[in-house]
């Protein structure tokens, strides 16, 4: 693998790890289980891609390249979900897998002041109670989630743009080895 191509791949992998770990922390804070599972698999795939690029392992690079397409699709779905494209709704339980948890950014965004109604609380809803209103947010939570997914898309596309280059490098490594 050419040195510049390897440096590019390793740089993208490091950037993806940093951004994904940041995203994973906030998804854990909000108990968003589907994104937590997706981020976990993405971290594994990025580590495989990093080691595949560093040690010139074509099979690892192939797994990484295929995963980038899946990851790109997941993040496009996430953007569509938070922007309520088509029949998707932010109030559905798709991302929290039925736990009624919410995005951490919904009540903890910059300047957000949540208002709760604690007169009808039950034991089940204390942890995941939805505020009756949120005021003063500098940026709505769904835009923050879309920005995070958009950054992931950008990194995946930058990597996918070199997908054919990776395939060519993998092919030449197979021929040599």
How would you sum up this structure, described in words?
The protein has helices at 3-29, 33-54, 58-82, 104-108, 141-161, 163-176, and strands at 113-115, 133-135. The chain is mainly alpha-helical and 177 residues long. A two-stranded antiparallel ribbon has the order 1-2. Helix 3 packs antiparallel against helix 5. The relative contact order is 0.16.
Largest sheet: 2 strands, antiparallel
Task: Output the structural class.
Answer: mainly alpha
Say how many strands there are.
Answer: 2
What would you report as the Rg, rounded to the nearest angstrom? 19 Å
- Main-sheet strand order equals 1-2
The residue fraction in helices comes out at 55-70%
As a percent range, the share of strand residues is: under 5%
pLDDT averaged over residues: 82
Lay out the secondary structure.
Layout (H helix, E strand, L loop, with lengths): L2 H27 L3 H22 L3 H25 L21 H5 L4 E3 L17 E3 L5 H21 L1 H14 L1
Antiparallel strand pairs: 1-2
Compact overview of the structure:
This protein has 177 residues and is mainly alpha-helical.
Q: Which features characterize this protein?
A:
177 residues; 6 helices; 64% helix; mainly alpha; two-stranded antiparallel ribbon; 3% strand
């Amino acid at each position: 693998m050419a040195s510049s191509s390897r440096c590019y791949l390793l740089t993208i992998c490091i950037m993806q790890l940093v951004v994904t770990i940041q995203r994973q922390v906030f998804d854990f804070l909000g108990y968003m289980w589907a994104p937590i599972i997706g981020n976990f698999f993405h971290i594994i795939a990025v580590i495989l891609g990093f080691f595949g690029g560093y040690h010139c392992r074509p099979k690892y690079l192939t797994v990484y390249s295929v995963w980038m397409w899946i990851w790109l699709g997941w993040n496009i779905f996430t953007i569509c979900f938070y922007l309520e494209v088509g029949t998707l709704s932010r109030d559905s339980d798709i991302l929290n897998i039925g736990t009624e948890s919410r995005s951490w950014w919904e009540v903890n965004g910059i300047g957000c002041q949540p208002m709760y109604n604690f007169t009808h609380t039950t034991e089940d809803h204390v942890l995941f109670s939805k505020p009756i209103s949120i005021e003063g947010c500098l940026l709505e939570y769904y835009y923050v989630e879309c920005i995070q997914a958009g950054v992931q898309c950008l990194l995946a596309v930058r990597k996918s743009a070199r997908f054919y280059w990776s395939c060519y490098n993998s092919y030449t490594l197979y021929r040599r080895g």
